[in-house]
Design a protein that fits this description.
This protein is mainly α and about 80 residues long. It contains 2 helices and 2 strands; from the N terminus they run ββαα. It has one domain. About 55% of the residues lie in helices and about 10% in strands. About 5% of the residues are buried.
Length: about 80
């Protein structure tokens, strides 16, 4: 058994491994969701750019830093 925390709580190794597994799964899920949001924002930027450009994806290809194309709230900015 391992001592953890200010009150020297006893946490058994299998339980500790369970916490690590949950943490790792949560991190992986968070990374998946971040990538999904980035893909959605990229598509939205391309859709908005299509109003001005013949091919909206040109903007995404030639300005790959997505943050330059978002407003202060993180939404695709039509004016960018």
């Amino acid at each position: 058994m391992t001592r953890v925390g200010p009150r020297s709580m006893i946490v058994s190794p299998p339980r500790k491994l369970g916490y690590r597994r949950e943490r790792n799964e949560a991190r992986a899920r968070m990374q998946e969701l971040e990538q999904r949001v980035e893909r959605l924002l990229t598509r939205e930027v391309a859709r908005l750019a299509r109003d001005t450009l013949e091919n909206g994806w040109d903007l995404v290809l030639f300005r790959p830093d997505l943050t330059e194309l978002l407003d202060d709230d993180g939404h695709a900015a039509p004016s960018a």
